[in-house]
Write a structure and sequence with these properties.
The structure is a single chain. This protein has 289 residues and is an alpha+beta fold. The chain has 2 domains: 108 residues, 3-Layer(aba) Sandwich (Aminopeptidase), CATH 3.40.630.30; 136 residues, 3-Layer(aba) Sandwich (Aminopeptidase), CATH 3.40.630.30. The chain is 30% helix and 33% strand. Strands 1-2-3-4-5-12-6-11-10-9-8-7 form a 12-stranded mixed β-sheet, sandwiched between helices. The longest helix has 15 residues. It is elongated and about 70 Å long.
Length: 289
């Protein structure tokens, strides 16, 4: 099969179900298998600002055999998923899809393109590196199982009060407590898009001043943390304690936590462990490559 037989074109030119099927097939043997339903794909498009007209599909005999999604916010863009079906790999198709996405970004006036790649994925990392992407930081995917420490709040942090608060109010306060830049999936723009699925906690000191906040989504089985930070380690610990005590049987995860996130020691002390890590990479389109 010749790579010349494969055509790369805009993703909005094929049915969305074809994109979903191709992505599920491409990620079926990935380091972390990913499955998208029609509902979760639509949520992805909205939450991550995916533009299908600037995204790419690779077609072979009218079959979608590769996908590259491009999210756009202002002058920034994000590769929100790039995959090729196993039988079509090692033919340069990933490079063709990436080149298409970068050209679309240039055409739309994008200044910076970013992505994440799992640290063990040497093939993808080498591809992105060869196309001008530079590693900016390491992101950790954290998981907490039943062995998590779930202490009683008042025994550890006397004088600190944790309260539930309306998510829209917490989102308004969030920039005050964002100590490090959030990954694309957890930026304020993304969180506003999913606010109806979030719950929130705020933490206060003895003077009733807000010290930090936590945003999360889930139930008694699985919980995703989307933001956790405070002005002190004690306040961050109080937030986490309240969440763990409230959901004693849940499995927790926290996606793409930067290595320099000040809440990381609190999470680790509670028993959160790294399940996988990713490199965040950026490409400045002004460099001419």
């Amino acid at each position: 099969m010749s790579n010349r037989e494969v055509v790369v074109r805009a993703a909005d030119q094929v049915p969305r179900r074809d994109i979903i099927e191709a992505m599920n097939a491409a990620y079926s043997d990935y380091f972390i298998p990913i499955y998208l339903s029609s509902h979760s794909f639509e949520n992805l498009i909205t939450r991550e600002a995916i533009h299908l007209e600037a995204s790419a599909v690779a077609l072979y005999d009218n079959q979608t055999v590769g996908v590259g999604l491009l999210g756009i916010r202002g002058c920034r863009a994000w590769i929100g998923g790039m995959g090729v079906l196993p039988e079509f790999r090692h033919q340069g198709l990933g490079r063709r899809i990436m080149a298409y996405l970068l050209e679309q970004a240039r055409r739309m006036g994008i200044k910076n393109v970013q992505l994440e790649v799992i640290t063990q994925n040497k093939v993808a990392f080498n591809l992105y590196n060869s196309m001008g992407f530079k590693t900016t930081r390491k992101l950790l995917v954290l998981s907490g199982e039943e062995h998590l420490s779930r202490p009683v709040l008042r025994e550890r942090y006397p004088g600190i009060v944790v309260k539930a608060l309306d998510v829209s109010l917490l989102l308004a306060y969030l920039p005050e407590f964002a100590a490090v830049p959030a990954p694309w999936q957890r930026t304020l723009e993304s969180l506003w898009q999913m606010q109806d699925r979030l719950d929130g906690l705020s933490v206060y000191g003895g003077d009733e001043q807000m010290l930090g906040l936590c945003l999360w989504s889930g139930d008694n089985h699985q919980v995703g943390i989307y933001f956790l930070n405070a002005t002190t380690q004690e306040a961050a610990g109080a937030l986490l304690d309240r969440l763990l005590v409230a959901l004693p049987r849940s499995r927790f995860f926290y996606l793409n936590v930067p290595e320099d996130d000040p809440a990381l020691p609190v999470l680790r002390s509670a028993g959160f462990e790294e399940t996988v890590s990713q490199y965040e990479m950026h490409r400045n389109l002004a460099d001419g490559m």
